[in-house]
Amino acid sequence: MSKIKGLVCKECKSEYPAKAIHVCEFCFGPLEVAYNYDVIQTQISKEKIQQGPISLWRYVDLLPIESTPTVGLNTGFTPMVHSKNLGKKLGLDYLYIKNDSVNSPTLSFKDRVVAVALTRAKELGFDTVACASTGNLANSVSANAAEANFKCFVFIPSDLESGKILGNLVYKPNVVAVEGNYDDVNRLCSEIAGEYPWAFVNINIRPYYSEGSKTLAFETAEALDWQAPDHVVVPIASGSLLTKIYKGFQEFERLGLISGVKTRIHGAQAEGCSPVAAAFKRKSDFLQPVKPNTIAKSLAIGNPADGYYAIKIAEETGSIIESVTDPEIIEGIKLLAENEGIFTETAGGVTVATLKKLVNQGVFKKGESVVVYITGNGLKTQESIAPAVGSPWLIQPNLKSFQHILEKEKK
Ligand SMILES: *Cc1c(COP(=O)(O)O)cnc(C)c1O
């Protein structure tokens, strides 16, 4: 029997074959992958995982592919750092930084979802891949499509950071910059997906794509010696990552790989695009779509597909969804760089700033473990931080000139 049962509607539980579909025909609810956990239980063990590849594919038994992985063979298994300096500053003895800013091949957590989506797209027989992206997803689809010999179309809002635009073009996909925000791009792509037989990783392949995010939870638990942390802080764009980190811990517990999971799954948004945090604060499941206005462009989804489910999980686990301002995001980026030597993009600034806010609210108790997910790399969003980092000392090429400025500038 196969480990994959098929797809199932998250709302009405209607079942479907594991094809390139994502919406329930009956109730229009989203579809997700359903597994035969009894089959997986006979295949999976800590020892087998530990002897597996040094990549996210060590968890292949819990990923929705049927053959062997073909894309993203070096993706995942990123560093998990026990923070000393930032932890001390914030009064947290057990603060861990899960550093996907150095993920392979394109320096963001999106390499995880794309590895799974493109491997599945190949299994389903597609020759063209595509996506609607806030930036990092397009980078990852472009790079992985180049290596895996897919034809490729990526659709992005035209006002993205230059590093993210160039980070598509260099791989030579078809890059389509749309004069509109991400929600406009996404709406257009849903239409295009109906016309062309392409694997849109976050539209018709979304049920498979989103499962790749679970590997962040798996790697976290394995790195903590097979325990789930007390708290995680997760950035929210569509909300998919947050829901899948929850699902990852649940699956590991169900299969007996970890036990006693009580993880609180806190969400982080930028105030300039915080429909999920706003609904959470109103104690409502109803998300009011917004027009994004923030430097955290990778999180700028005004009408997040999984926002409703993110709120449900936050409520169920007694967690908090907070938002932070653009100046707080800049401060968050600097806090992580200056204390830990990790240069994250604006999304990571949102996460660190939210962590700080939760510390100030007294959310974390002494001795509790906290994992923050740093999901993207600062070299891609340089224009947002450039005005806040100062400039180098400028000198003449002689010792006197250096000594002069040393006296003047020394800290
Ligand atoms: C896409 C993205 C996220 C969050 O994605 P979800 O849509 O919520 O799954 C977080 N951080 C970065 C850097 C991203 O690119």
Summarize the structure.
The chain is an alpha/beta fold and 411 residues long. Among the domains are: 1-43; 80-106 and 210-388, Rossmann fold (3-Layer(aba) Sandwich). It has helices at residues 37-43, 46-50, 85-90, 110-123, 136-148, 162-169, 182-195, 206-211, 214-223, 240-254, 275-281, 307-316, 326-340, 346-360, 382-385, 399-409; strands spanning 4-9, 15-16, 31-35, 80-82, 94-99, 128-132, 151-157, 174-178, 199-200, 231-235, 264-270, 321-324, 369-374.
What tags apply to this protein structure?
411 residues, alpha/beta, Rossmann fold, 6-stranded mixed β-sheet, 16 helices, 13 strands, binds pyridoxal-5'-phosphate
Elements, N to C (H/E): EEEHHEHEHEHEHEHEHHEHEHHEHHEHH
Mean pLDDT score, rounded? 97
By CATH, the architecture of the domain at 80-106 and 210-388 is named: 3-Layer(aba) Sandwich
Strand order of the largest sheet: 4-5-13-10-11-12
> Which ligands occur here?
pyridoxal-5'-phosphate
Count the strands?
A: 13
Q: What's the CATH class label of the domain at 80-106 and 210-388?
A: Alpha Beta
Global shape = globular
Largest sheet: 6 strands, mixed
Radius of gyration using CA atoms only? 21 Å
Number of H/I helices: 16
Roughly how much helix do the residues carry, as a percent range? 25-40%
Low-confidence stretches: none
For the termini, the CA-CA separation is 66 Å
Strand content: 15-25%
- The chain-level structural class is alpha/beta
By CATH, the topology of the domain at 80-106 and 210-388 is Rossmann fold
Characterization of the model:
The protein is α/β, with parallel strands linked by helices. Among the domains are: 1-43; 80-106 and 210-388, 3-Layer(aba) Sandwich (Rossmann fold), CATH 3.40.50.1100. It contains 16 helices and 13 strands. It has helices at residues 37-43, 46-50, 85-90, 110-123, 136-148, 162-169, 182-195, 206-211, 214-223, 240-254, 275-281, 307-316, 326-340, 346-360, 382-385, 399-409, and strands at residues 4-9, 15-16, 31-35, 80-82, 94-99, 128-132, 151-157, 174-178, 199-200, 231-235, 264-270, 321-324, 369-374. A six-stranded mixed beta sheet has the order 4-5-13-10-11-12, with helices on both faces. β7, α6 (162-169) and β8 form a beta-alpha-beta unit. The radius of gyration is 21 Å and the shape is globular. It binds pyridoxal-5'-phosphate. Residues 108-110, 136, 235-241, 298-299, 345, 347, 375-376 line the site of pyridoxal-5'-phosphate.
